[in-house]
Design goal:
With about 210 residues, the protein is mostly helical. About 80% of the residues lie in helices and about 0% in strands. It has helices at about 10-20, 25-50, 60-95, 100-135, 145-170, 175-205. α4 (about 100-135) packs parallel to α6 (about 175-205). The termini are far apart.
């Protein structure tokens, strides 16, 4: 059995990403970047535990670490889910345009290919919420890592949205396309701003402007 993309060494994954192959692509890369973002949140939490200064947040940090581990695991799994959805879509595009089955097959493939990046976005939103809380309760010695995590999660959020829009623009069912696109737009509007606010707060503190 071929190794899952989520189990590849960093060098191998980046090499596969750079190669003339369809997967991994932007969706899988977005999932990985999101996983890295929430992993930074977990690192801050791990360094915060056991510090007398943050004893009042000990229970919250333990909870955040459990949540972060789940988000990270889900995002890594979504690397593989995104790759699996591409092959059926690729085959659907190859169906002759005069084939009466083409539209139905294409519609399903487009929908399936949109699900992984949609879930990537949802998980990135969860990651940004977690990073916002960690900014308040985590060790100030690692505040720069919270800022990096927020920006990585934001990049992953936007990247995943591109991989949705490229599919929904071809949906025959425009009502379903609009439903998905409205959810995407709402996540972008709320969480790009929230990630920027986290990064701005971090920048102000580490540069002595707060």
């Amino acid at each position: 059995m071929a190794k899952k993309m989520s189990e590849m060494a960093c060098q191998d994954f980046v090499g596969a990403l750079a190669a003339k192959t369809s997967v991994p692509g932007g969706g899988g890369a977005s999932a990985l970047v999101g996983a890295i973002g929430v992993a930074l949140c977990s690192m801050v939490g791990d360094f915060t535990l056991g510090r007398k200064k943050y004893a009042q947040f000990e229970e919250d940090v333990h909870r955040m670490l459990a949540e972060g581990e789940k988000i990270q695991s889900d995002l890594l799994m979504l690397i593989d889910d995104d790759a699996k959805a591409f092959e059926p879509l690729s085959k659907a595009y190859a169906i002759p345009k005069d084939d009466p089955q083409r539209e139905a097959v294409m519609e399903k493939a487009l929908m399936d290919a949109s699900l992984a990046p949609l879930n990537i976005m949802r998980k990135c939103c969860e990651a940004i919420d977690l990073l916002e809380e960690m900014l308040e309760k985590g060790s100030v010695m690692l505040i720069s890592d919270v800022g990096c995590g927020a920006l990585f999660a934001k990049a992953a959020l936007i990247g995943a949205s591109f991989n949705i829009y490229i599919n929904t623009k071809s949906f025959s069912n425009r009502a379903e396309a609009e439903k998905i696109e409205n959810e995407v737009a709402a996540m972008l509007e709320t969480y790009q701003l929230k990630a920027d606010q986290i990064a701005s707060a971090v920048s102000s503190k580490i540069r002595g402007e707060a």
